[in-house]
Automatic annotation (TrEMBL):
Gene3D superfamilies: Tetratricopeptide repeat domain. Residues 8-20 have a biased composition (Basic and acidic residues). This is Tetratricopeptide repeat protein 9C-like. SUPFAM superfamilies: TPR-like. SMART domains: TPR. The lineage of its organism: Eukaryota, Metazoa, Porifera, Hexactinellida, Hexasterophora. The keyword ATP-binding does not apply. Keywords: Repeat, TPR repeat.
Length: 198
């Protein structure tokens, strides 16, 4: 293995047609390289590796993301290949959401976590935590509530999840207070107008 966690795998798919097994192997190796970059805090290179891994998997089997690439035809996979493809796709999307979380690129956190959950709706606590955190940061409190509560069910003792739930609770209280002020202000103005008319 090359220095820095690189396996020496060529990142960009070649023009030469690779077999399904070769594409899956290259995608898995690139995902592992991405994991090494992620662990070392090199999110830019991790993102690059995960994206290249996804390129190798586009169009393989019933990949729901293959519709993104026009002209790519699905290829049949064995049961084992499907499992490896789905596991690798999920990991890449989930880890991309983690990279984007570190960079506070909330729209991309949501997009990548959602792609991961389309592959595995049960997800894992990190997937729901990341998307819930992004929803919270963008003010989508209902979606944040749903995702963070799901993350808490999956990992009840996770301090990061519990911290976000506390922040969510505070933002919801603040939102309700502002909402109450708006509605009470509307009620007072309506009564004032009614009194003036009389």
């Amino acid at each position: 293995m090359a220095e820095g966690g690189d396996s020496g795998v060529k990142e960009k798919p070649h023009k030469k047609e690779l077999s399904i097994s070769e594409k899956i192997e290259k995608a898995v190796a690139l995902k592992e390289d991405g994991n090494q970059h992620f662990k070392s805090g090199d999110y830019k290179d991790a993102v690059k590796k995960y994206n290249y891994a996804l390129l190798y998997l586009k169009g393989l089997g019933e990949d729901p993301t293959s519709q993104i690439v026009p002209g790519v035809k699905s290829q049949s996979l064995t049961k084992s290949q499907k499992e490896t493809r789905n596991k690798t796709l999920f990991a890449c999307y989930n880890n991309l959401s983690g990279c984007m979380l570190k960079e506070e690129r909330w729209d991309r956190v949501i997009r990548h976590a959602t792609s991961a959950l389309e592959l595995q709706p049960e997800g894992n606590s990190r997937t729901f935590y990341r998307r819930g955190t992004a929803y919270l940061a963008t003010g989508n409190l209902d979606s944040a509530d749903s995702d963070l509560k799901r993350a808490a069910v999956l990992s009840p003792n996770d301090p990061a999840v519990n911290k976000q739930l506390i922040e969510l609770g505070e933002k919801m209280k603040e939102f309700r207070k502002k909402e109450k002020e708006i509605y009470s202000g509307m009620f007072v103005r309506k009564n004032k107008i009614t009194v003036e008319k009389n």
